[in-house]
Design a protein that fits this description.
Two copies of one chain form a homodimer.
Chain A lengths: L1 E5 L4 H10 L4 E7 L6 H12 L3 E4 L3 H14 L3 H16 L6 E3 L13 H11 L2 E3 L7 H11 E7 L8 H13 L1 H7 L4 E8 L3
Helix pairs in contact in A: 1-6, 3-4, 3-7, 7-8
Chain lengths: 199, 199
């Protein structure tokens, strides 16, 4: 059984892949709209983790629609959720994909599918959508991360990560300058995986 | 890192243990009030799965309180949730226990802790409460079960399983006769694990 793990290069998606590895053939998949080399950054991390990796490039109209949403809302939640759902649907539409894994944790709020959206995607595309960390709190995730990964943490603007935020921020910066990003996105700590600890 | 997996001998708790096995030292723990030999039945299944197992015997007053609740309510939800929470707190109070794993799935409704109850238990006892299957839907669980376990399924009254329902049903039968059970518990299919498939 093969699983496609949605991969940002961060600790949660990396740990999800590691937890699935004994039970599935794992491939890591990164979503990029080609504004920044986020796919390549993720590919490098994937190689250090020891998993095959591919980049998918959904239509840039998805990023543009997310950009319109965030400019209208003034906050990122709906835009991030929209890209996230579009990425999952893009993956689910691939006839070679049966299991999709998402790195969200118990305490995550964004991005997040509603239960009705999950059921709809599973039914429409005949896939299994799985969140291996959904039953784990922050402290338990940290224990597992410390055991299996070496990470660096930094503020969002200093760590290049292949999450949905990165290219959305870039599009805002191109259109409005970097100060606009600070208005819209709360400053928060990002993790980037450096390497895997092997026993 | 050792994890104590709450174990009923059913497919969900068995699969939870299997998913955790590569990352933790797994022990299976079954809760019994000694009305029926459910602990011994679970111990036999645990041996076939290849995991160490122990039985804990919380005070029978917990079963009695659950019995009062179910007789007053006329349905099992609150009584089952009460035993479940008491079992977790009993485990969490053990100073050798740091990680507790529960076999509930994404689509389960009972038993279920509220998020505030989970946080309260984690904070009060300094434990991590984890649900390895919480991010998996029924179909994905079934795929994993088929790959790793041989199970038998049958109606609740025909399959002796070490879940909370079993001894609660027995207490009702002793006090009111077997017909009372059918009034209170919906008939549903139970699974019991026969053996583990090894690659």
């Amino acid at each position: 059984m093969q699983v496609s793990v949605m991969f940002s290069g961060g600790k949660d998606s990396s740990l999800s892949a590691i937890l699935l590895e004994p039970f599935f053939e794992v491939e890591l998949v990164t979503c990029s709209f080609s504004l920044l080399p986020v796919g390549e950054v993720a590919a490098e991390t994937a190689e250090r983790l020891g998993f095959p990796h591919r980049i998918i490039n959904p239509d840039v109209s998805i990023l543009e629609k997310a950009y319109d949403m965030i400019m209208e809302d003034g906050f990122p939640k709906n835009a991030i959720n929209f890209i996230h759902k579009s990425f999952i649907e893009h993956l689910a539409a691939d006839s070679n994909v049966t299991f999709i894994a998402d790195g969200i944790r118990r305490d995550d709020r964004v991005p997040m599918l509603e239960m009705s959206q999950i059921r709809s995607i599973e039914d429409r595309f005949g896939v299994h959508y799985m969140c291996p960390l959904k039953g784990y709190g922050r402290a338990a995730v940290n224990e597992l991360v410390n055991k299996h990964l070496v990470i660096e943490e930094g503020l969002s603007e200093d760590v290049l990560k292949a999450d949905y935020e990165t290219e959305l921020r870039e599009m805002i910066a191109r259109n409005h300058g970097p100060d606009k990003i600070k208005e819209i996105f709360p400053t928060h700590v990002q993790s980037h995986v450096i390497e895997r600890k092997r026993a």
